[in-house]
Amino acid sequence: MAEQEKLTTSPFGRFLKMGALAGRVGFSLVGEKTLGLFLGEESRELRMARAWVKNAEKIAETLGNLKGGAMKIGQMLSVQEAILPKELAFVLKSLQQNAPTVSTAVMMQTLDADIPHWRTLIKEIDEKPLAAASIGQVHRATMHDGRQVAIKIQYPKIDQAIFSDLKNLRRLFELILESMLATNLDHLFAEIEARLIEEVDYRREIRRIHEFREFYANDDRFCIPKPVEEMSSQRVLTTELLVGITIESARHRTAAEKNIWGRLLFRALAAQLLVFRKLQSDPNPANYAFLENGKIALYDFGSIKELPDWLHAGYMKTISLCRQDRFSEITAVAASMKVMMKSGEEVPFKHVQLFHDALAPVFLERPYRFNTERDPIKKIINYNKANFNELKDITFPGDILFIDRAIAGLIGNLTALGAEANWKDELFEAIGLSE
């Protein structure tokens, strides 16, 4: 990971960097499209692929260096790799675990300001971060009492910088997505803003950690590092150190191990969504780690989506209809979840049929293995692109965006693992349903 000596935090400075990036990317893509008019199909695709590699590297470098809202949006897009040019998705994935780090001297500014006495608690702190994220980075440390801990420290003034990013980034991502993704960017940016408000408050995250530790108190397969509150503040979060295997490394483990870890990821989302009704809404693979003993570690409780009663009831009714093979009735349930046409009419069944196909593996009576050849998320996205003119009049509540992203991220993680299980049994056991 490359290291930065200084982080750009002024709104004007960040605006200039993102504006320059938008100009470079836009000019490059327009030039390639124009030249493509005079080339054969194969040459045109090859040139555009090369252009995306170059532009993806520019985008990832700029967003990674800026951190904050800029990097967060890049991370969000990297999760949705099915909707992006593969060259862009590949490079943006680097933002998930290989983001540029900020020098320890810069990070100490936050520590000194928030916990002036931290040296009386910490014996030594590693200068090289364990991980770098959008609003902070994590350092391994040893406390004077011998405990090994992970200290998540916010970048100085990042809380001031991230909100100015939203407006500045809008044009950039309209430029990137306008030709490939038909989505309501107002919803997208409203979602990001809500998340960031939560994520910059580490005190709030500590409260969430306690809630989730209590929820999983009787199931030791889910490990959540305990907070060290005397070494935490609004911008500093210290927890017990718990290091595991990344999802990239897990790809190379045995099928049996990957199946166990995949089942636990699936159960985590099902139970959080339908039992606890509080969901970790960021599916970034860096927020999970796999342990050698058939357990998983859950990190990052900064962004939690709480389900309102009407939405929870809709998901439970959907499951009930699917298990009874009555999916044709789902359009009425969708309307109760505020998913309907702008006219107020129910969504035509043909548009929800594909979602039934995506859910089908969960209700099979036999094991099913997730793999890239039959990725349901890609099928849904391709359908949406092909039928955009009909689908553009569908309205939906912002509440669903958090949840859909988490579900899509789960499917992506299960696909990355190639996990296989009887998912119907896993679902029913996770949420306490009987046959």
Automatic annotation (TrEMBL):
It comes from the Bacteria. InterPro entries: ABC1_dom (IPR004147), ADCK3_dom (IPR034646), Atypical_kinase_ADCK (IPR051409), Kinase-like_dom_sf (IPR011009). CDD domains: ABC1_ADCK3. This is ABC-1 domain-containing protein. Keywords: ATP-binding, Nucleotide-binding, Transferase. The lineage of its organism: Bacteria, Pseudomonadati, Spirochaetota, Spirochaetia, Leptospirales. One of its GO terms (molecular function) is ATP binding. Transmembrane segments: none annotated. Belongs to the protein kinase superfamily. ADCK protein kinase family. Residues 95-320 form the ABC1 atypical kinase-like domain.
